[in-house]
Structure formats: C-alpha cells, structure tokens
Specification:
mainly alpha; 74% helix; 2 domains; 6 helices
C-alpha cells in the first residue's frame, strides 16, 4: 500500500513539473479518488453505504468550522475565493466540495478495515463535543455567526438525529 502511495506521489509530482502547474496532479488525484469511491460503492451493502455517507457528511461539515479558523490564523488563503458560502467569506466553495470528496474516499476506505464490537460511548462524547464546541466557539469567541450557522446546520443534519436516538433509546 505504501508503495502505491509513493508511486502516485511520484506521478503527481512529475505531472506538476511537466505541466508547470498543480492542475494535472490534482485532476489525477480526483480521478483516482472518484474511481476508488465508485469501486467501494459498487462492492458494499446499502447499510455500509448509509453509514459511510453519514460519517462522511459529518467529517466534511467539520471543515466548515475548521477552514475559517485556518484562514483567520493566516495558515492559508486564496487570491480569489470566487463562489463562497454567504457568511463564510474568503473560502471558495470548491474547497468545501473537495473536502467532501476527500471525506467520501477516506470513509469508504476506512469502512474496509476489520471491525471489533466496542462501546460507542467515547466516540459519541467526542462527536457531541466537536459539534457543540465548534458551534459555540464560532458564535461566541470567534465572532463568526455565519460559520456557526452553516456548520451547525450541515453537521447537525446528522448529529442532532444521532443525539436524539442516543437519548431516546439508551443502550445501557
């Protein structure tokens, strides 16, 4: 597996040098990710696809909270954000869509790992903490109500029903 990643990195690097820009390397990466997800989708059960989809959405929605923090700290920026979400200026929508695609591939691959039956208590608490603290911090401390709203809604689409299920159907 490491050899494959190294080979793909060499290929992407060669494409960047050969074409003089990142576009070809990114296009190869996207093509690789889309084909990987398609293969995973075609070889999984619907229950697995639904689970992967829910977790993928939460992971991608978390980026709605994280990117504004990274931009605010000066870790990255875009010359022209172009199409952006209202209330989240300076970050192109393509960035969020790219993270959604990356989350799809990551979760499809992680879904292939062997599983153990363990308690969901720690992941549930972590998910609640990430959701609540991200909404609260953006609303109160960072002064970004648009980020709190977009991230709260997008992540909340999965997290709120999940929390309701945990509360209404406890697994003691």
């Amino acid at each position: 597996m490491a050899g494959n990643r190294f080979a793909f990195g060499v290929l992407a690097g060669w494409l960047v040098v050969r074409t003089g820009g990142l576009e070809a390397g990114i296009a190869a990466h996207v093509a690789n990710n889309v084909s990987s997800f398609a293969l995973a989708a075609l070889t999984s059960s619907m229950a697995q696809i639904k689970a992967v989809t829910a977790v993928t959405w939460v992971l991608a929605a978390w980026d709605l909270f994280l990117d504004p923090q990274m931009v605010g700290q000066g870790y990255w920026s875009w010359e022209d954000a172009g199409w952006a979400l209202p209330g989240i200026p300076g970050i192109p929508m393509q960035n969020f869509l790219g993270w959604l695609l990356a989350a799809i591939v990551l979760m499809a691959l992680l879904d292939r790992l062997p599983r153990k039956t363990v308690s969901d208590a720690v992941p549930n608490v972590m998910l609640m903490w990430v959701y609540a603290s991200s909404v609260f911090a953006n609303l109160v401390f960072f002064g970004r109500p648009g980020v709190a709203l977009w991230g709260g809604i997008c992540m909340g689409v999965v997290v709120v029903p999940w929390l309701w299920r945990m509360w209404s159907q406890p697994q003691w």
